[in-house]
Amino acid sequence: MADWSPRPSTDQETAPLLRDPDAEEDNAENEEPTLMDRINSVAQEPLTPLSKVLLVIALILLLLSSVFIGLFAGVQHKLNLERGRHGEGPPSTISVTFTATATSSSIATTTLSTPSPTGIPEEANHIPVCLTGDCIMLAASILSSMDTNQDPCENFYEFANGGWLRAHPLPADKGSFGNFEALAQDNEHVIQRILEDKSSTTSFISSSDDQILAKLRGFYSSCMNESYLDTRGHEPLMVVINNIRQMYRRKELVIKGEIEENAFQGLTAALAYMHSRGLGALFSFDIEGDVGVDPNHLVLWFSQPSLGLPSKEYYEEEDIRKVYQSVIEKLLFAVSEEEEKVLLRRSFESSPVLIEQDSIWPPWPWPPWGGDDGDDDGDNGGKKPVNKTKRVQKLAKEVVKFESEIAHASLDLDILYQDPIATYNPAPISNLTTALPQIHFDEYFSTFAPRNYPDRVIITYPPYAHSLSEILNNTSKDVVEAYLVVRAALSLSSYLGMGTEAWQAQRTLVETLSGIKKGAVGDRAEYCVGQVEGALGFAAGRYFVNETFSGESKDKGTKVITDIVKAFQRSLKHIDWMDEQSAKAASNKAQTIRVKVGYPLSPDTTNPASIASYYARVTGDEKTFFENVLSASVNDEIRGWLQLGKQRDPNAWEMYPSMVNAYFNPPANEIVFPAGILQPPFFNKDWPAYISYGAFGHVASHELTHAFDSAGRLYNQQGKLEQWWTNATSASFQSKLDCIIKQFSAYSIDDGKGGKVYVNGNLTSGENIGDTGLIQAYRAWKAQYDSSHEAGKEYFLPGLSYTRSQLFFISFARVWARSMKAAAAVQRIRTDPHSPNNYRVDGTVFNIPEFAEAFKCSSKARLNPPPEKQCIFWGRS
Prior knowledge:
By secondary structure, this protein is α+β, with helices and mostly antiparallel strands. Among the domains are: 10-83, no CATH class; 235-495, Neutral endopeptidase, domain 2 (Orthogonal Bundle), CATH 1.10.1380.10. It has 32 helices and 15 strands. The strands form 6 sheets. The chain has a 4-stranded mixed β-sheet. Strand 6 and strand 7 (294-303) form a beta hairpin. It starts with 20 loop residues before the first helix and ends in a 23-residue tail after the last helix. Its cofactor is Zn(2+). The chain crosses the membrane at residues 53-75. This is Endothelin-converting enzyme 1. It comes from Lentinula lateritia.
């Protein structure tokens, strides 16, 4: 690796290596006075009036000479620009700023032989550098984030982010933290001020705004009221659990005037109650477009459920299973003890009291099946004392086993996320009712949409319904009941007081899976603002946008996106694997993509009445945080089901305005960028273009490229699943896809236990292709350079010894800085379709020759591979 440490320049090495002291003494007397001696002698003499006049004249002439030299340099620079404006090659002699920490740096002058990875831009010697406060802060942010001891051609992620990673150690209460999370915190602080400072929203005076702000502040206040949460204990959770139990334990189900005996007679009602409150169990339904017929017609989709553990791999790890089983035991114990307290209280309130056996949960003796070999963990007729601990342990073990079977019956995530054809299986609703007879779907649907019973459903994985039916038939009804209780408790216990056994149990699981330090809890206000955003995000977004996102920001952000779309269209004729017919169709699709920036119009965040109506079912009570969360969940679920059978709302968004994210929606053929991500370090309307196009431009190009990735390419410009590329183009694309799958499958992370976990190249293929869109952002920046330069938007920043092209790539890499615990990294690599951030940076520039050109990387550098090893999707410049 090259040594980029500062070295003395040659003009500092003027003295001989060895000296003779005696010879120096002999020569001292005979030496002529030096120039400095003469100057000192003159300086000590008093100035005559004539000397003073001459000195003033000399200073004036020196000043005039400086002015004329500056004017000449400016004219010469203008002539150079006219001859060739884009020449940015670094000179051989450069001044390099080496930053050791965020607060200290040293500057040295050194001579490097070309090619070199960094250098002062030629134009920087002639063009004024921006010295405003914003420019200085931006430059300081970039400098402090870097580690210039790293060779950018070998480890670009560390080169761009090493300083940031050192300056931002991972907080004890977080398993992962990066620039995305840092910006999310900044956005939350804006919302926090709105929630806490009533004077911050005085510009809104409508009655609807008063209603919205009262609901927002009430929700936030209820979350912050920890003492009230502690006082209530498990009470709110027990209300939900008792409702689930009562529905599940119905004695009979009347169908067509007859009583049907069924081991799962109450399962349908219990599931409908849970799903209406956002509590996942057994299966899931979504309302989305019918991509095979009409993508804008919203229909019913049946799929597998979320799991208690992040993915099926965890159920195979003994240490994780033990922790999970222990957590379930604690939750079941907590619920059992709460039931006993209620029964005991009733006995004191009414004496004598008759308590029916069916009112007790867990069933007593618990569980109701007989023990093994006559031991005391089963129902032995009361001959031996009941061992409650063993009963709970046995039930928890059975719940883990039951959920493990559900996990293994589920479709692998790489297929679920990356193969829209395999997961599109339309069928009559009778297919589902036949495959899963334990669920009475007519009754289930009446909970959500009583006037709109679907006769058709799209099943993402048909074998799952059959497998679930078999699993249910082979499982005790008491285990299924315990599973439902555990799913509710795991989902809702985080909204209880931290002193409750249920909160502490679920927290143990969170700490284990994410690597968070035991007992480390983050700032309550930060947590509560996040809860407000999750429940009332569009309402909070109205005021967030008002304070952070001007119309000019929206226009300039949109321009970056549209410039990238145009660059993509221009690149299509240079793509070697795409024929003319397919290229034309791809250009048409890119042209018709709907671009949404800033904030939605459904609900209309500019209209408070629209927002108030949207959140009509949310209580916003100042005390009952748990109930506020449930009411928000009910609001979301019911609103979603009411869209069944209707046309897609073209103004609807899936993300709220303050969110630090973006997305591409294939059936709607739209890319969406909330105002939350159009903030530093991604975007600022006044930044130089090479910074904005490198940072936010990559986000924009990433989402655009999703329209043509391994999954997105299967949707046509109307969002319909269709073969709209020629067979030859599809076959050629597959070879590119195989290339990038192979590349990323070779990357691995440390599992924290001395082993490695490899990236799933299939699962991450779509996102990795999306990241290749960075080249379109680069081309878009280059295409607008002339006009941007004329408008003064390509100015230099102080102290940055890098070309504009280099800073473009540095800006891209900087946004992906992230520290992560090993446990959290393992969880992400198993469940997240995005690759680890360091590979999102290095793996992306590996396939972009322009990066190696910008940094003058040698042919042997790791990030300058030979062409045959690169996965070039969008042609070469």
